[in-house]
Amino acid sequence: xxxxxxxxxxxGNPDFxxxxxxxxxxxxxxxxxxxxxxxxxxxxxxRDYRNEWxxxxxxxxxxxxxxxxxPYAYISYNMRAWATVGNGNSWEVDxxxxxxxxxxxxxxxxxxxxIA
Length: 116
Prior knowledge:
about 120 residues, alpha+beta, about 25% helix, 6-stranded antiparallel sheet, globular
């Protein structure tokens, strides 16, 4: 069981004359829970935030997901989770994708069940 946190925010895109964030920062905290479920939820929150504020790739800040206050992953604009290496203030991005069940699969299954 892990405590998982992430802060969602945006940046202005200088290519479009934007020099201030386009949205407020939002901190997401998920208490003690299964890590896979927490990552699914974090990706869902990130997707909702990106869509609600109509953020483009130049506005996306790759939010860091912390597990028990240690950097665990970041979420890229395409809603994929990528592992980090290291801990505390000394970490870097790894090129290893963290596979998380695709939320669309669950929606398709629900839709199929409602039709049947």
